[in-house]
Amino acid sequence: xxxxxxxIILLIVATGMVSCKNNDxxxxxxxxxxxxxxxxxxxxxxxxxxxxxxxxxxxxxxxEFKCINSGTKPLIITSARPGCGCTxxxxxxxxxxxxxxxxxxxxxxxxxxxxxxxxxIIVNTNTKNGTEHILYFTGNITGGPxxxxxxxxxxxxxxxxxx
Length: 163
Hints:
Helix content: 10-25%
Order of helices and strands: HHEEEEEEEEH
CATH class: Mainly Beta
CATH topology: Immunoglobulin-like
């Protein structure tokens, strides 16, 4: 299953590379760099944790996580996977040159949420300092359905059965 996912990611990245015309790397070279440890670089996340504050239930909020290629080779983000279906993630698809900035975006839909939420996005890159990076965002949702559950003591249930 993991090999199939990797193949799908490779195909998506390859398609994205072919469609981008403003790259210094050729698509074939970019794909090689993404998985060749000799071409790995380093990344510095400007912000890997965001607090969006308080929003109303049903509102959508868009967040940006910025990174800088702190290495000497092009930085390639190969995927950005949100932790759940309430978030849509996107990212800089073209190679990010040394000392240049890239972005991972998250669009969170607060429908069906209430209270404090903590969400994440897993980002995969061609980096020496770990190929998997987790970005977090948190905030508060007001006006949604209560998360509290009403509990009925078991002795009341037994008494109802006997009546």
